[in-house]
Sequence to fold (156 residues):
Amino acid sequence: MASKGSGGTTMMRAGEIEKMSVEQLKAVKEQADLEVNVLQDSLNNIRTATARLEIASNALHDLSLRPQGKKMLVPLTASLYVPGTLDDADKVLVDVGTGYFIEKTMVEGQDYCERKISLLKSNYDQLLEVATKKKSIADEVGAILQVKLKQLAPTP
Fold:
């Protein structure tokens, strides 16, 4: 009843959709809507991660411009800062996930951020394409379902 499209996603042809019963259409519509919602959540997560990396990249750039020995506030959490002194502006700790940090030079740290941003943007574009296809399927199924429901409704 379904054929495989690009990327392994199930794509249905209009003819197959029109042959489905109302119950099948409701199930397909519900499933497609659920998948669209999951993809939207993933897109939002990617956007958030990209924004954080861009902020980190900008912070690294700003940090590289400060002279050694400069007094500054160091963030421990999003809302807690402690006073500190810049000791070595050429070495930074990069959070690579799950509580692991790697010491890198400032240039390597900025390069790491830019590579991650590029990867996330690529993933975002791919996910957006899949979400758009799923949304169009959900809309198409919804339209066909509406037509079938109108045909089944008693006319006064």
In short: The CA atoms of residues 102 and 121 lie 23 Å apart. Confidence is low (pLDDT under 50) at residues 1-10.
